[in-house]
Description:
3-stranded antiparallel β-sheet; 3-stranded mixed β-sheet; 4 helices; DNA-binding
Amino acid sequence: MTAQRRVVAEVLDGEHVHLTADEVHSRAVAKLPEISRATVYNTLGELVSLGEVLEVATDKRAKRYDPNAHRPHHHLVCARCGAIKDVHPTGNPLADLPDSERFGFTVSDVEVTYRGVCPNCAA
Amino acid sequence: MTAQRRVVAEVLDGEHVHLTADEVHSRAVAKLPEISRATVYNTLGELVSLGEVLEVATDKRAKRYDPNAHRPHHHLVCARCGAIKDVHPTGNPLADLPDSERFGFTVSDVEVTYRGVCPNCAA
DNA sequence: CGGCCACCTTGGACGAAGTCTAAAGTCACA
DNA sequence: TGTGACTTTAGACTTCGTCCAAGGTGGCCG
């Protein structure tokens, strides 16, 4: 646990939003000016493998990092402005995939992304 | 409808798999050597806005294009090799998102991505 | 204390994917 | 044939991410 890693963890923990790697880097730089992009990417990668943080790929642009990894949830994305909300649908999509539709895969995980238009963009 | 657009449409229609823009370009070049990358991107973009083709962003790498846009379906992705299968789960995830979880959004669409390991990679 | 080794960080180069732009080509139609 | 609208092209450019070699840092053991 180095100063750099602590800073990255703090940035993610501080704001419960979905930051891009670049945004994490900017905020990390504010706390520790010499931190490099490579270190931020490395640290984010480690946090992801440790299961502390989730990668979210809601749009084709940059990956986003979701510090809320311990509470299972899905995402609601604004098609217009890209805003992301965590949501908790009822039901279990894993149970909705019959064996005949699994093609022999060992299915371990499911991601649900709702798309729509947020109140701001609708106005 | 120009020769270039016809070729792109043929490539997508010919193979019911999920191609990246680059793969579409390579196959299009085989049929029409002078077609440019920009044209392929333009045409894919138009097909997407027309609703003829779906963009799929299952991994962080290249977008993939799914010609099977008229039959609603979701995707099963191999975490190891990236293979993608179309699947048809039972149930309607849109109905599983209560109003209280919609944050005022007008929700129009939902994408479900199952992740697992395919039989090939498991062996 | 001093040396050694493992690991971390840095900065810049590199690569992949996609977008943009200016110029040239093509087509319908009067 | 001339005109204007639209398309295509090639390549430059941007963005996002990864890689790598060099240097730094700290722990540990003698």
